[in-house]
Design brief:
TIM Barrel, two-stranded antiparallel ribbon, alpha/beta, 12 strands, globular
Length: 333
């Protein structure tokens, strides 16, 4: 064949492939999500093989392990005892609650680790929603935002480096930014869940947090989060959310879920100069784990390929439960 250009020339050897490679994974790209509970034991999360609900002391050890592997940022999610859950999620304001105590312990043990927190009411609410539910079964936006601002301040006072509003209430980024600045926390960043879709991929995560509505609730409770999380059919709406978050002071914007929404990551990359994070969510993680356990896929290869896809789509950071495993695999390669 008389071909002027043969693309395979640059694929011939590992060295050739490496010098023209467009994207690369680094362990510093990862943000490691961790579940913590009040018990003194470490409990495996059945729906998420390889993950656990950590005791505070166990979690501190896991954070140290992650740091030693090169991971530089974690995000904390609490499993709150049912007896502490209320309709307004007031336990999130407890200065000596589970998350503030965990933050302080981590900062004592691994002071340079970046700690991101989750700002939403669902772990603390008996109604199982990210916002306050009215007696008529409506998620109240402005009242929820007021509570989220108080929650963010509790976390900042405990030592959080990044606040992560995951609730999808309108105006919450600007309100939280103002609240933090007014209280002397201008240095605390906001990683906003900018395009968080009402997705079926969150099921294992909700099991890990045990955040379903309590059965004894008598008022009408929405069965899903469609009235505040984004419609999976919409792409342009993500641009609207991103522009609003930028205007309101977000430092980093995020797309959640990640794998099923690579087009949204690319869309926001073309629209924004801010760093973009992708959340490799629990459902995506659990599907890989289940297939790997059955020998249907090569877990290492699939995980690294998946994580690379987020970078190729335009993400700078990746929240992933695979963080420590991927850190080990990257060192092996």
């Amino acid at each position: 064949m008389e071909l002027t250009y043969r693309p395979r020339r640059l694929r011939r050897t590992p060295a050739l492939r490496s010098i023209v490679r467009e994207h690369a994974l680094s362990v510093t790209d990862f943000i490691y999500p961790l579940f913590v509970h009040e018990a003194d034991t470490v409990e495996p999360v059945d729906a998420m093989p390889g993950t656990s609900r950590w005791s505070i002391s166990g979690l501190v050890s896991e954070v140290q392990r992650a740091w030693d592997l090169g991971v530089r940022c974690i995000v904390l999610f609490p499993k709150v005892p049912k007896e502490l859950k209320t309709q307004d999620g007031a336990e999130c304001l407890n200065e000596d609650g589970l998350i503030p105590r965990t933050i302080r312990r981590i900062k004592q043990a691994v002071p340079q680790m970046i700690i991101m927190t989750d700002v939403a009411l669902d772990p603390y609410s008996c109604d199982g929603h990210d916002g306050i539910v009215s007696e008529a079964g409506i998620i109240l936006n402005d009242e929820t935002v007021e509570q989220l601002c108080r929650q963010a301040l509790v976390q900042a006072r405990a030592g959080a480096d990044l606040i992560g509003p995951s609730d999808m209430m309108d105006g919450r980024v600007g309100a939280i930014r103002e609240a933090l600045d007014n209280e002397g926390f201008a240095h605390v960043g906001i990683l906003s869940y900018t395009a968080k879709y009402s997705s079926a991929y969150y099921g294992p995560f909700r099991e890990a947090l045990d955040s379903a509505p309590s059965p004894e609730i008598s008022k009408p409770i929405p069965e899903n989060k469609d009235t505040y999380q984004m419609d999976p059919a919409n792409a342009r709406e993500a641009i609207v959310e991103a522009r609003l978050d930028e205007q309101e002071g977000a430092d980093i914007i995020m797309v959640k879920p990640g794998l099923a929404y690579l087009d949204i990551i690319r869309c926001l990359r073309e629209e924004s100069t801010l760093p973009i994070a992708a959340y490799n969510v629990s459902g995506e993680y659990s599907m890989v784990k289940a297939a790997a356990e059955r020998g249907w896929i090569n877990e290492k290869a699939v995980v690294l390929e998946t994580l690379l896809s987020f970078k190729r789509a335009g993400a700078d950071l990746i929240l992933t439960y695979h963080a420590c495993d991927a850190a080990v695999w990257l060192k092996e390669d």
